[in-house]
Design a protein that fits this description.
This protein has 11 helices and no strands. It has 209 residues and is an all-alpha fold. The longest helix has 26 residues, at 55-80. The N and C termini lie far apart (59 Å).
Amino acid sequence: MPKGSKELADARKEEIVNACEKLYATMSFKEITIKEIGAVTTFTRTSIYNYFQTKEEIFLALLKREYETWIGALNALCEEHESLSAEELAAALARILEDRRLLLKLMTMNNYDMEENSRPENLAEFKEAYGESIRALDRCFAKFTPLGEAERKELLYIFLPFVYGVYPYAEVTEKQRTAMARANVPFVYHSVYELTYHCVINLLSRKGE
């Protein structure tokens, strides 16, 4: 392999993922194509296929990067504090998720399709980040709560599905608001912070009973 080729490949992958993130800020997943992504990179569209074979692989790489940022924030929380009360831990986890809107938005997508249309090696890289996010959360609960391993495991597998579903409750479009009003469905806005804080507090309270 020529010297510098790995660095070049990594840089180009990063540029492709950045382009995807930029487009996703204003376009839907369905609207974004390889062609659209290629139009905002510094190299030809066909070159993208040297790094990603499908649009889903690019989105999976973006989701992986967002997981890694979340993991970094969780690890920093453990390193920066010797102890936290249940309320302080809930507030800290809520703030971290509030800052990870892109992660939460990506989680609402059809992960089955993303994974099904990605090569095994790309999927394995993503699963490594996913697994590390579980371990990072567990480290936080292990350090800041008196819960044993079995109790923490039970808590994690309640909290993680909550994380996957919180975004649609905090981000509602005008079209959705109108539809709910017509259907006579009451809507009360709650932020990601509020929803996460109360979820963690309730889970920890139940575990302390």
